[in-house]
Amino acid sequence: MSKEKDESFDARLKAAERRNGLVTQDTSTSPEADADKPLATLALRAGTEMLSALIVGVAIGWGLDHWLHTRAVFLILFALLGGGAGVLNVWRLVRPTDET
């Protein structure tokens, strides 16, 4: 009788956890899809790092040129700095870690 109560309690507990969102069901499709997911995530993050650094650099350069009434001096300078910062961020993202 005790064994049946334990199984019943475990089943009700798991059902309650699923209802309240404490436990999610395993919905993985295949090992191949799981293997590609980190690579796709890394590629998306690397692209985002590059693009965001370049956009911030161009925006700062354009703002300074607009504020100081210069031609495109700061725009070119900060676009290069933003591109360099993006490359540095991507390099930090993909470089192997030395755990010694």
TrEMBL record:
Annotated segments matching region Disordered: 15-35
- Protein known as: ATP synthase protein I
Q: Which domain of life is it from?
A: Bacteria
Q: Where is the composition biased (Polar residues)?
A: 22-31
Lineage of the source organism?
Bacteria, Pseudomonadati, Pseudomonadota, Alphaproteobacteria, Acetobacterales
Q: InterPro entries annotated for this entry?
A: Atp1_alphaprobac (IPR016989), ATPase_put (IPR032820)
Would you tell me the Gene Ontology cellular component terms? proton-transporting ATP synthase complex
Keywords attached to this Swiss-Prot or TrEMBL record, sorted alphabetically, are: Hydrogen ion transport, Ion transport, Membrane, Transmembrane, Transmembrane helix, Transport
What family is reported? Belongs to the bacterial AtpI family.
Q: Which GO terms describe its biological process?
A: proton transmembrane transport
Q: What does this protein do?
A: A possible function for this protein is to guide the assembly of the membrane sector of the ATPase enzyme complex.
A Pfam family = ATPase_gene1
Residue ranges annotated as transmembrane are 42-64, 70-91
